[in-house]
Amino acid sequence: MGIRGVRGLPRERQLGELAREAVPEGDGRRLGGGHSSTIRRGWRAVEDGRVDPRFVLHDHRRPSPHFDLRLEEDGVLRSWAVPKGLPDDTAHDRLAIAVDDHDIEHVDFEDEHKSIADDGTWEEHDRDERRMVFSLHGRTGVRRYALIHTGGTQWLLHLTREQPDRTR
């Protein structure tokens, strides 16, 4: 399965409790169950009039602590559950489990069990069927990662040795 093929996985193939989460309805201003969300605008214009795609890193506290990395692409958020969070050094890769794509409104979603740990825009540097290299332009700077498909829904998230200037 290539990186563009992570959507539509049957519920029984997802990572148990990590994949069971509230998903916002409507325009993201009011969420199902009466929860409200904070609306953020994470878009950054570029020279040719396009806007860079957004990313969000959700910090889940229930049912078990983990993070969700979501990258905007083709009108949805491609999503991976990352049990131990993003890697902070090049020697320690992290497991990333592909889960169902989420509606774009989910980029702003927060509730009592989920908060936004980081958000911003992302850019792709290289991609093939097995690997994607990309940078996250987050709140504290820019970090470059590689997502490497290892089979089924499992991926490795790797912090690359070559890093952009963090002050950009």
From TrEMBL:
Residues 15-30 have a biased composition (Basic and acidic residues). Residues 15-37 are annotated as: Disordered. InterPro entries: LigD_PE_domain. Keywords: Ligase. GO terms for molecular function: ligase activity. It comes from the Bacteria. Residues 58-148 form the DNA ligase D 3'-phosphoesterase domain. PANTHER family: DNA LIGASE D 3'-PHOSPHOESTERASE DOMAIN-CONTAINING PROTEIN (PTHR39465:SF1), DNA LIGASE D, 3'-PHOSPHOESTERASE DOMAIN (PTHR39465). This is ATP-dependent DNA ligase. It comes from Nocardioides hwasunensis.
